[in-house]
Amino acid sequence: MSEPVSSSAVSRRAMLSASASLSAASMAAAAQTGGSRPNVLFYFPDQVRAQEVGYNGGKNIPTPNIDRLASQSVNFANGLSTCPLCTPYRAMLQTGRWPTLSGGVMNWINLPSTGQSMGDVFSRGGYSTSFIGKWHLAAGARAGSLKRGEAVTPKPEPEFVPPGPARMGYQDWAAFNFHANFAKPFYYRDTSQRLIMPGYETDSETDMAIDFMRKTSGAGKPFFVTVAPHPPHPPWRPEQTPPANLAATPKTLYWRPNVKNRRDAPTVDPRCYYAMLGNVDDNVGRIMKYLDESGLADNTIFVFTSDHGEMLGSHAKYNKMVPYAESVNVPLLVRWPKKIKAGSKSDALFTPIDFLPTLASLCGLQIPDIVNGMDLSASALGRKGAERDAALMMNFVSHWDFPETGTDWPEWRGLRTKQFTYTRWLNGAEELYDNAADPYQTRNLFDGLRAPDIIGKMRSRLADLLKETHDDFLPGDRYGEWFTRDRDMLRNAVGRVG
Hints:
By secondary structure, the chain is α/β, with parallel strands linked by helices. Helices cover 26% and strands 15% of the residues.
């Protein structure tokens, strides 16, 4: 492995200078094909692991539309969910900041607005902005409790996110904080009255996205629309799954070699996961069809990704929150016809905090100074540019809801390079895998200390990045001190907020 180079070695001034050059080039290219900044469609269903889409060799469900999108896009083969849990990913996506600084370390918290998040940047930049689907950046029904088992006083419509700073700059809103009513979805706009949509959740969100694009595309302003379907996140129950997609799902599934036996697999029906993914693929096809037929495709940046993966029995685990490939590797495609080479591939390490600076740069917008992510627009455009040598990965709390330690998913920190995955658990245990030679991560190189030089470099680089991000690697229950009982944020890793 080559000698690591710190991401902080690239000065913010140099990064901004490079971003300005790329933004100018993007704006000039857009001017030649219509005189406007590009539209952006950001589509990220929940819990889609990279290994399941067809273009990555997925075997259980065809994904012809996602595969066609891949053939027209740059494929970031190292798309990573570096804190593989719903709210932490979404906080990184929207703010471009490390969880230790944004405060997004666990689910169901009221993430404070900085006025410099994704929606803010694009709204100030002259875009019509919309968020459609699952938000999960508010406390919702969990407000009033920081410990498992505590009673919470029911509140009317707790998953309604009211207009104002909590929506982080998005102007149009058809969203919910959290629910799992896939077959009977409901949303909120600017009041707490439920907007009940007919049909399956992902279908309804595509309907609303197409309607928003249709209404705004003729208004003389570009659009930035985020579509965030909850499926194929659990629960995986037939009654919550599109019947036609479930009927098309094989009754006998392929299991990855690191699923040692079926008892390691989820006890619910995993066929529903694949049926839901098939429905996601159907809706990707609907969006592509609309963009083509409306003439918007050439001037629309289409991003397809997911917030994290799903273990599905690999390493005797299910769900996410662990450092293995099934949990952290996500599909990541970026299409921009005539600007991004169709069918190209990048091995740049792309993390959630990189979306805001990268998309802002591609659209000619200023990147806020508080952003920690890297502008990887050069990688998207097939040019040379700054990249990180290692991606910091993390899991702060050991329960998906409460700030706990030593329970369901033990806390860890780790590194991902283009070749290796290194993990240090809170109890001191360590793992190192060569992802190229061992893609199923079954041979821990710490067994027998088979790679002492690499181990030393990984330990040193992790220490550097933890220092850079102000991460003291605390036990999970210590993060309860960051929040009030209503889950409003009091502080982050560097001090009080607000």
